[in-house]
Amino acid sequence: MRQYISQKNIDSDGLLTIIGKDYRYLRNVLRLKNGDMIYARLPSGELQSMTVCKIDEKGKKIILQVCDILEGQEGENQPEETASIEATEFTLFMALPKSSKFDLIVRQATECGVARIIPVQTEFSQKGSEKINFRSDRFERIIKEARQQSGSPVNTVISDCMSLSQACQLWQNETESLSQSEKLALVLYERNESTVTIREAADSLHSAFSGEANFTKKIALFCGSEGGLSPLEIAALQKSGFLSVHLKTNILRCETAALYGIAAIQSLL
Q1: Nearest to 170 by CA among 180, 185, 157, 182
Q2: Residue 141 CA to chain centroid, in angstroms?
Q3: Torsion of CA 92, 93, 96, 97, to 10 degrees
Q4: Quick count: other Cβ atoms within 10 Å of Cβ 106?
Q5: What is the CB neighbour count within 10 angstroms for residue 80?
Q6: What is the pLDDT of residue 37?
Q7: Residues 6+ apart with CB under 8 A from 266
Q8: For residue 10, which of 72, 107, 224, 234 sits 20 to 30 Å off, Cα-Cα?
Q9: Rg (CA), the chain
């Protein structure tokens, strides 16, 4: 379901006026016409069903009007399974690849509903990748376009780049109070020694559940760059609670491996 990510709230008359780049997106990309329906994601995270009531070609603005009740971000009217998926925070730790590949990874991770993308400087990270500005307007635009295209309710953010030791410490600090059934951390490894399959990792998580009220609160996936991860880095991640996963498939590029891993985990859980 496509949606429009709004930076402002609906006015007291139930109208939302759209101008500038957003006008061009709705008019030229989505090709909205008078009477069309669209969902607007408001700053609060609420999803609002709206209709196009006026298109001002001369003034370059579109006016949307409320046509249905608001729905909460976690979806009061959504199936319980969907609400649980949205309540799980998914973090992608991404070893720095080339800049162009990182753009694609951000887009695909956003479409999949990943909450955080954390760039990590590793031994085999590509030269020059450390110069990427992760707070640039370009990434904000990529994330917004991906959310609008996919309909993701998750506000994906990109964190500042950190070292592998900092990434390990971050995950340990954030999950030390969680039980084994409430967290899952996987690292993709091109070698197959001391690894499990994603299905085996998911089965071990399910076996840890002790009651219906439990659900996985935090999931992390660590993906290497073009050169993969070194044995020492894998050992450090394992010590921090990451399970090494070997994908029994064709050899994947780093941007494909990240998407493959995210999709496989979400499908199994």
Answers
A1: 185
A2: 14
A3: -40
A4: 25
A5: 8
A6: 86
A7: 85, 90, 112, 113
A8: 107
A9: 21
Spatial neighbors of 238 by CB under 8 A, at least 6 apart, are 187, 194, 244
Q: How far is CA 81 from the centre of its chain?
A: 18
In angstroms, the CA 202 to CA 265 distance is 8
Q: What is the pTM of this model?
A: 0.81
CATH among 3.10.105.10, 2.40.240.20, 3.40.720.10, 3.60.10.10 for 3-66? 2.40.240.20
* Distance (Å, whole) CA 49 – CA 225: 40
Q: What's the CA gap between 100 and 131, in Å, rounded?
A: 13
Instruction: Say how many CA atoms lie within 13 Å of 148 toward its Cβ.
Output: 18
The structural architecture, per CATH, of the domain 80-268 is 3-Layer(aba) Sandwich (3.40)
Residues of 113-128 as b/e, b for ≥16 C-beta within 10 angstroms? Answer: bbbbbbbbbbeebbee
Which residues 6+ apart lie within 8 Å of 44 measured at CB?
9, 73
* One-letter identity of residue 16: L
Amino acid at 40: A
DSSP 3-state assignment of 259?
A: helix
pLDDT, averaged in runs of 10, over the chain (269 residues): 86 92 88 88 89 92 81 42 64 92 95 96 81 85 91 92 96 93 92 84 67 73 92 95 88 91 88
Sign of CA dihedral 98, 131, 228, 248: negative
